[in-house]
Write a structure and sequence with these properties.
Elements (H helix, E strand, L loop, with lengths): L1 H6 L3 E4 L9 H28 L6 H30 L3 E3 H34 L4 H4 L2 H27 L8 E2 L6 H7 L5 H34 L4 H29 L8 H25 L2 H16 L1
Parallel strand pairs: 1-3
Antiparallel strand pairs: 1-2
Length: 311
């Protein structure tokens, strides 16, 4: 029994908060406002899509799921981070840490796949407009979203299983703000080769596959737009995918900056902050991007406000 307890700690301690003692109050307040803003913005998008018939199309069906993912992703980590900053007790139980890893990987992975599905939707809308309603019917949209969630849940289950089957006999102190695979592997005293093999095996599906799908879709979209002789038609075609392209660039740009940089530029303290910003930046900005750049969403918002004032 003692040997088992040595390899399975009852809790983990986050060391990243020890460097922020004098900033805890300010940072917890900022993160609380960010979290509230993220929840309100994404909930507003979901409610508008549900209530407005004009927004009940494939494009906004995917957007509603993206907003749901953004809410889930930030809720997985931010409340725990805020609680640690306020209480000064940077501790998480073993079970909660395991759940945090699973849901963080689940929601992050689902978002990468969903962005690829949204790129395919924009490809179908611009390159095959006459067959768009046939290609992207309600059943197809539901199947694509279900496939994103199912594939990512399998991926999250595999990585969570491999990570938490490792022994943690050396220390239970994680040099991070939340439970993630990399910092947990760093403190394991066991053979982590199986975890790295699992990461390499799933990267074509969860990483390179979605990126390749997005790139191919936008190559076809750009070629189609360049063949449009009317400037008005070209601008209209581009406007239908501008918001999605902005979200894709923001999401993958922040991921690349966080994880794909020259070795010489790495600093663990900096990387922790980048990972934290990467976790909150896209979910907070996505509602703004789709609201400010999308006439349909702005029109639906105005209609909802007018209806509320009249009735």
């Amino acid at each position: 029994m003692d040997a088992i307890n040595e390899t399975v700690p009852s809790e983990f301690i986050f060391l990243a908060f020890s460097d922020l003692n004098e900033w805890c109050s300010l940072l917890s307040g900022i993160l609380f406002i960010v979290h509230l803003f993220t929840l309100m913005g994404n909930l507003l998008i979901i409610i508008l899509i549900h209530l407005e018939p004009s927004l009940q199309t494939p494009m906004y069906y995917f957007l509603g799921n993206l907003s749901l993912l953004d809410i889930c992703q930030t809720t997985t980590t931010l409340p725990q981070i805020i609680a640690c900053l306020i209480s000064g007790r940077s501790v998480i139980s073993y079970a909660r840490c395991m759940m945090q890893v699973f849901f963080f990987v689940l929601f992050s992975g689902t978002e990468t796949l969903l962005l690829a599905a949204m790129a395919y939707d924009r490809y179908a809308a611009i390159c095959n407009p006459l067959q768009y309603n046939v290609i992207m019917n309600q059943k197809t949209c539901a199947q694509l979203v279900s496939a994103c969630w199912f594939t990512s849940s399998l991926n999250a289950s595999v990585h969570t299983l491999f990570t938490f089957n490792l022994p943690f006999c050396g220390t239970n102190k994680i040099n991070y703000f939340y439970c993630d695979i990399s910092p947990l592997l760093a403190i394991s005293c066991g053979d982590i080769s199986h975890s790295f093999i699992a990461l390499l095996a799933t990267s074509p599906i969860m990483g390179f596959g979605p990126i390749l799908c997005i790139i191919i879709s936008y190559i076809h979209i750009i070629l189609k737009i360049l063949n449009v002789h009317s400037f008005t038609g070209m601008r209209k075609a581009f406007s239908t995918c501008a918001s999605h392209l902005t979200v894709v660039l923001l999401f993958y740009g922040s991921c690349i900056f966080a994880y794909v940089r020259p070795q010489s530029s790495y600093s663990f303290n900096t990387d922790r902050m980048i990972a934290l910003l990467n976790n909150i930046l896209s979910p907070m900005l996505n509602p703004l991007i789709y609201t400010l750049r999308n006439k349909d969403v702005k029109g639906a918002l105005r209609n909802s406000i007018v209806k509320k004032l009249l009735f």
